[in-house]
Amino acid sequence: MIKAVIFDKDGVLLDLEATWLNSAIAMTHFIAGLTDGRHSAETFQDIIGIDEKSRRIDADGLFAAGSMATQFSAIAEAVPQLADQLHHDQNIREKLRDVFLDARDETLAGVGSVANGDVITPLSHLHTDGYKMAVLTNDSVESATRGCADIGVTDFLEMVVGFDSGFGSKPEPKGLLAICDALSCEPREVAMVGDTFADRHAAEQAGTGAFIGISSIYPDTPKALEGIDHLLPDLTGLPNVIRSIR
Questions:
Q1: Residues forming beta bridges with residue 211, ordered by sequence position
Q2: Which of 218, 219, 173, 222 is nearest to 199 (CA)?
Q3: pLDDT in tens, 189-234
Q4: In this predicted structure, what is the pLDDT of residue 97?
Q5: What is the pLDDT of residue 112?
Q6: Burial of 136 from C-beta contacts in 10 A (0-12 / 13-18 / 19+)
Q7: What is the Cα gyration radius of the chain?
Q8: Which residues fall within 8 angstroms of residue 164, CB to CB, at 6 or more apart?
Q9: According to CATH, where is 3.40.50.1000 located in the chain?
Q10: pLDDT tens, 67-124?
């Protein structure tokens, strides 16, 4: 019996491209500048799976499905001269973080947080049905809380857990298990809703009762979500799926 639903944030509650594409583009231009013109920003965009020209994020790419650490590792493998800067130079890493977040702040100032379709209606139905809800994200708590408030879902949520909450990041399951404890639920009583391997793996490692995938390329399936029982294009049909599992 499902008693609680835990959501990833970007790509599930918030539109991933609208929220973070400008940040990813800015990051690749900064990294290109570290090579003194020997490599273009497009080189690094190809590596992490974004396209500045079409303004798309590859659902199977590292930016969508991986962590910042995996992106840096892939870039360093492709361009070894960057390895030391990306992995060990604290000054460069801090500048990269500033570039990334400054672009995010400019996006928020320009268009605000963009919901991934109608998220209010399905969360409202789940709330009415008595399900507890929370967010588990690899973003910071501050950023995630702001995004959830901007799209109007804060009142539905019991808590928001981020990479800086003390439980590590997905795909490790500790954050998910911490939410289960806080909500007084066993993992088998929880459904995780996500769009990446990190979400899926965290759910599997925690032993959740269900995992529901959100595909940005629906009806096609990203590699990370292949073989799952429940795949949706957005949250519209989620209440019915949760009820069917229950």
A1: 192
A2: 173
A3: 999 999 999 999 999 999 999 999 999 999 999 999 999 999 999 9
A4: 92
A5: 86
A6: buried
A7: 18
A8: 140, 141
A9: 4-15+114-245
A10: 888 899 999 999 999 999 999 999 999 999 999 999 999 998 888 899 999 999 999 9
Q: Residue 189 corresponds to which tokens in the numbers above?
A: 């009583």
Residue identified by tokens 């835990």 is: 6
User: Which residue in the block uniquely carries the two structure tokens 């769009």?
Assistant: 195
Q: What six digits make up the tokens of 33?
A: 């500048």
- The arrangement of strands across the sheet holding 159-161 comes to 159-161, 132-136, 4-7, 190-194, 210-214, 230-232
CATH class given for the domain over 4-15+114-245: alpha beta
φ and ψ at residue 40, rounded to 5 degrees: -85, 165
Question: How far apart are alpha carbons 125 and 118 in whole angstroms?
Answer: 12
- The angle subtended at Cα 81 by Cα 80 and Cα 82, nearest 5°, is 90
